[in-house]
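Below sits the subject:
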Amino acid sequence: MLFEKNVYGEESMESLGASLANALKGGAVVYLEGDLGMGKTTIVRGILRGLGYEGPVKSPTYTIVEPYDFVGLEVFHFDLYRVTNAEELEYMGIRDYFSAAGLCLIEWAEMGVGVLPEADVVVSLALLPQGRKVSITSNTERGNSALGLIAAS
């Protein structure tokens, strides 16, 4: 399945993230793709706001993972930009973060190839004049269910 939308401005990107939150609140593995500054962390902020989080949301570039706890859902925001070898993820125990009831939002997932599980949903961001093209694809049945909810909203 594929869902595409053109987004203009940070507020609209956060709004799209908030709509994704409803579709992903049952847990999923989400890869966020796009160049530096494309809005990956902004969409994560929107997802977290959509789940009810009100605190600051920053990219965990140096800490690699930032956890957020909600009633019935654990969310982990990963930024693998500074990972030089996927084995580093094994040393930090990355597999322990992935559970059926968890939501893992992963920026720069290509740095963890061979260690990370398959994405249920892939959010790709591309540059448009004055905005971003957001393409969301699903790779699993769980992803198809989430994408169905996104398309219906």
User: Anything to note?
Assistant: The chain is about 30% helix and 30% strand. The two ends are 15 Å apart (CA to CA). Residues 10-24 form the longest helix (15 residues).
